[in-house]
Amino acid sequence: MAIEVRIPTILRTYTDGAKAVEAEGETLADLFEDLETRHTGIRERIVDGTELRRFVNVYLNDEDVRFLDGISTKLSDGDSITILPAVAGGMN
């Protein structure tokens, strides 16, 4: 089951500069484990223990996984995952 994972610029050092990589998994948690075997160090930048890091947004086919089942969200062949760092800031 191949799933495309789009990688933000800040994490591309873990993927040798690749903007997108393939990974496998029945759930998002499984996918992150597979991603870690292919790109060592990337998982800890996305997941803190068993939850997504606070300032990382993950989308499954344009749906925020926090509104689905979080890292327990089920995946299907051909799905697309987008990882985006949250953007904060502005004027006070």
UniProtKB/TrEMBL annotation:
It holds the Pfam family ThiS. This is MoaD family protein. InterPro entries: Beta-grasp_dom_sf, MoaD_arc-typ, Mopterin_synth/thiamin_S_b, Sulfur_Carrier/Prot_Modifier, ThiS/MoaD-like. Coiled coil: none annotated. It comes from the Bacteria.
